[in-house]
Design goal:
CATH superfamily of the domain at 52-89 and 170-219: RRM (RNA recognition motif) domain
CATH architecture of the domain at 52-89 and 170-219: 2-Layer Sandwich
Largest sheet: 4 strands, antiparallel
Low-confidence stretches: 335-341, 572-618
Strand content: 5-15%
Number of strands: 6
Mean pLDDT: 78
CATH topology of the domain at 52-89 and 170-219: Alpha-Beta Plaits
Shape: globular
Distance between the termini: 49 Å
Number of helices: 26
CATH class of the domain at 52-89 and 170-219: Alpha Beta
Helix content: 55-70%
Length: 618
Amino acid sequence: MTNFEFIFRFWTHIVMAYAFTFWACYILLKEYANVSAMRLHFIASERRRPNQFTVLVKNVPPGPDESVSESVEHFFVDNHPDHYLTHQVVCNANKLAQLVKEKKEKQNWLDYYQLKYSRNQSKRPMTKTGFLGLCGKEVDAIDHQTCEIERISKEIAEETKRVKKDPKSFMPAAFVSFKTRWAASVCAQTLQSRNPTVWLTEWAPEPQDVHWDNLAIPYVSLSIRRLIASVAFFFLTLFFMIPITLVQSLANIEDIEKYAPFLKPIIEVPFIKSFIQGFLPGIALKIFLIVLPTILMLISKFEGFLSISSLERRAATRCYIFNFVNVFLVSVIAGTVLQQLKTFLHQSAASNIPTTIGVAIPMKATFFITYIMVDGWVGVAGEILRLKLLVIYHLKNFFMVKTEKDREEAMDPGSIGFNTGEPQIQLYFLLGLVYAVVTPVLLPFILIFFALAYVVFRHQIINVYNQEYESAAAFWPDVHGRIISAMVFSQLILMGLMSTKGAALSTSSLIALPILTIVFHKFCKGRYEPAFIRYPSQEAMMKDTLERAREPNLNLKGYLHNAYIHPVFENEDDEDDISFEKSEQESVLVPTKRQSRRNTPVPNKISGGSSPSLPNVV
């Protein structure tokens, strides 16, 4: 190969790196502008919702002779005299919620035994009082469950009285509602006191988006909880490297034969050798990652986030970091050769790390092609077939379903789960950006995955899944930031790879790429991100003016009266009335062809305006 050809091949990679970077930045810029415009249009055209008029006030300072409710009322009457409307204090009802849940389970068992007895009245159903009805004294099942329900009902009544009357059950937080959207917007986005640690305000989440269990967590403990969660996530990521490293080392036949020579006759069989090198690492990696989303969601709940959407956003961020470290980096380092890990850990300088990874990445293209087919293609096919959920349904139907209510709950498809789907898709963005210039043969496999995923998930979102909340594209800044970080990482890796080829001039010509990418990210962050963080006062005033013109006699206080009532206070006696009131308060989520009776709010009957136009897809 002549020197001209040698240099030409390097400059081809460099030109393509600049081309991919400029193309990706152009697409991201257009998409950011488009998503932000759709978000503002959605906010301007959506119907009336309780959270538009409500802010969540935290860390209410204790008054000398006042309750939390009185302190909140006096503070906002004094500081927002023309706009304050009403408030609802947050109470610690977690124990009460547990009792209500236990009562529902006992009632379900009672319905089951009564149904069983109605079919065969010759023999009363019997059960044991021990663990799961497997041990202990045998008693009449119907009488036993009836007594248990009566006992729990008394405990619920006592706990309800305690929660409503005991000052210690009220948390220093409240949902405060205002007469206008403009007033709520000003309150949520301004400092309320000279002391910046008290009277903290933020936008209240939608009523169906509130994670009620975390409202009882004291504000002072949130920082400690988040520190503990960060440490736990660090060690989870660190220790997960061990099994994944061992799994990825299986792809190296030479190392297996070296450390286990007695397996050589079996490994050398062509079919087994192909299976070990091709599919075994990808399948094993997928099995290891099955429990990951549940663990990350538990860590996010421990941190104390107050809404389901914020829980999913934090879990999605950590899931992406975990996939980046354990699926990508560990697979690259441990899967090429076992000695590569030793080399990586003993680098004398941090600058050598991109070089080490850059050398390993081209050699792992085959593994990631297999991973895309196993995890991506097969995963999308499994999504449309829903085999996993079908198996879970039949297991529930066989072991847990006792009544028609149980069957309906077992058949509920749930929500799409942004904390799992979105990080997976972004991992494929990372693979595409890394291999676009280094090994372009991987790109057709990723394009096929995105084409299949678009068709399948569009169908699932419209026709299958329930929508728990409306985020109004709040996930997009996180998505944009992770794509930018993937671009910068791919550029650094390309520089490390080029440096191993002795092309100093070619390597130095890539230095401008990460700088330009970071500058582009700063521009997008300053230009478009405020639309995802703040609510324009101009939009709020326009909606208030239109609403006063259309409905001059609107009883807004009655509309917001039970908007943020804790679900456990919806007792059986007034459940229907409260449900009707709440159905009038909650707005329509983005309409789909399928609407669940359990999760999807009924259409708003008293508010005007057009239907929302932005689907909750980011």
